[in-house]
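USER:
Make up one protein:

ASSISTANT:
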Amino acid sequence: MKSITTKDCTIHFNDNCYTAVNEHLNSKNFSKIFILVDENTHEHCLPIFLSKLETETAIEIIEIESGEIHKTIETCAGVWNALSELDADRKSLMINIGGGVITDLGGFVACTFKRGISYVNVPTSLLAMVDASVGGKTGVDLGHLKNQVGVISNPDLVLIDTVYLGTLPKNQMRSGLAEMLKHGLITSRSYWDQFKDLSKLKRDDLDKLIHESVVIKRDVVDVDPYENGLRKTLNYGHTLGHAIESFYLNDPEKPTLLHGEAIVIGMILAAYLSHKLTGFPEEDMQEVKSRLGNYYGKVEISESDYKPIMDLLKYDKKNTHGHINFVLLEAIGTCKLDCKVPEHLILEAFKFYAD
């Protein structure tokens, strides 16, 4: 697949990844290479990556625990300390091999260590490939609040090798698929329609859809890197989705929801709000609910949970001047930004999801 160039970095695919990273290593004369992994990517992905690397530069491996609950400043402090103890300097390179937690946190660590060292992201989950790979967002959670601390800063390279998807459990694949479905809803009915029958998708089809999804996000981010306008469309489903994800993450009695699973709920809720507020056709609203429901099933959300979930909306990063701003759909492929939504409609949307 053809490499994708953004304003600030280049995204390479499959075999091109290793040609690109080896050329980068040979041309930049890094003092040391630090590879950040979790226990899963250490076992399943790191051996593949190292077998393709051609360099005489010393390599150190830093491992953190997997999972969103470890995407914290405390984990960052551990990695910063490890870098210091292993004599990292400003000419060091950090390579982050993993899902969104690794690439978000590793990018943030690299951007802040000694006021910034170079880094390369190697997303190994579908979610990280189509979402975290583009746009330079780095950061960590603050308690149970998602991505409250971070910076926008791009890696030198992004390397997307779909061979790593073979190491993923099905629920992680489904989590990433949610972002691809979102890309269709906000930009392209034709892309959305390519997901009508997942049973017919072959490996080559998936590679092409991943590539197209990255292009969609690249085209948005290049126009609006700092989320002043168009980039806000990428938050469709995320206002309530992030609140639901945070709520479930913070309640030990609730099942763990992966990011994509929570965003799917948020997209269905937002489809209802879109129908009520921005003229999104009822037929399309029902199609969104039906298709996403068929793929992901339904999460039981108690009515007593609605209010505490809604209370978390005030922490959403899109909020300004005390207002909660939603991204809604006018049609499949067309969004409206900065929509104000009354509380009673959010409650109705939860009931629409539950029916």
